[in-house]
Amino acid sequence: MNASDNGREAGAPRLLILGGTSEARELATALQARGGFALSLSLAGRTRNPLPMGAPTRSGGFGGVEGLEAHLKAERIDALIDATHPFAATMSHNAAQAARRAGVPLLALLRPPWQRQPADVWTQAASIPEAVEKLGPAPRRVLVALGRNEVRALEAAPQHAYLVRSIDPVDPPLNVPQARYIEARGPFAEADDHALLTAHRIDAILSKNSGGEATYGKINAARALGIEVVMVARPARPEVETVASVVQVLGWLETLGRST
Ligand code: NAP
Questions:
Q1: Edge to edge, what strands does the sheet with 79-82 contain?
Q2: Mutate which of 57, 58, 72, 91 to test ligand 1's pocket (most atoms within 8 Å of Cβ)?
Q3: What is the pTM of this model?
Q4: pLDDT over threshold 70, residue 115
Q5: Sign of the CA dihedral 125, 166, 85, 113?
Q6: CA-based nearest residue to 55, from 16, 21, 11
Q7: Residue 203: DSSP 8-state
């Protein structure tokens, strides 16, 4: 791909990565190492101290579809990579619409979901409120691994004792009688999660089906201990070209270069 081929000023093709995931960071690092692109990465700005992203980073929402479309045009972006989290559905839908309107090629980088293994004790839920409901009426001891942004749904079921793990603190704390908080950033080792589940006598885990290795330790540990996982299914995503690895993104960028 060559920016001048697109009728724009000569120079490196301009890529925007929508991030907030380890994959986005890996991609940015790989592209910087490869060279030949003018790269920027965008974060929503939710995490207080994000890790360095390996590329110039902007932070904060664009202002919906219109805002992102305007940004793509103003920054003369040649290709957009949606490497947001599988549950960041609003951003992915906005990216699909904005890219179409601005005429910018879009590729999604999306890790595959976890698949249930034979010994897994999973209860599927379509949403976080449904997952909380599926914990049932009797008090449970629950590890909550949903991030901090959607944990208010736990307040609908105050009978359970919650152990909430998130990168940043839950502020204000949940309005439930029994909640403890762990501030930690993955990756989490299976052995550590096994020890955590045992130490806190956890009997259920609330998890999104995020996929990937970094937070899979708790799923392995739950399987070994026979603990139920209430697994929240992924939200619907827009129909856009999608790959599962950084290497495939690099290949797509090459293809794009040949076709422009
Ligand atoms: P979301 O619900 O899909 O998006 C809500 C709004 O946040 C978007 O409309 C957009 O605001 C802004 N936004 C989201 N991602 C952005 C990005 N990369 N750059 C700039 N603005 C962004 O998103 P979310 O689920 O809250 O996730 C927010 C961020 O956290 C994402 O970057 C995602 O990759 C990361 N993350 C999410 C989860 C999760 O479980 N949801 C887990 C790990 C990491 P405007 O409409 O104003 O543009």
A1: 57-59, 38-43, 14-18, 79-82, 106-109, 242-243
A2: 91
A3: 0.94
A4: yes
A5: negative
A6: 16
A7: -
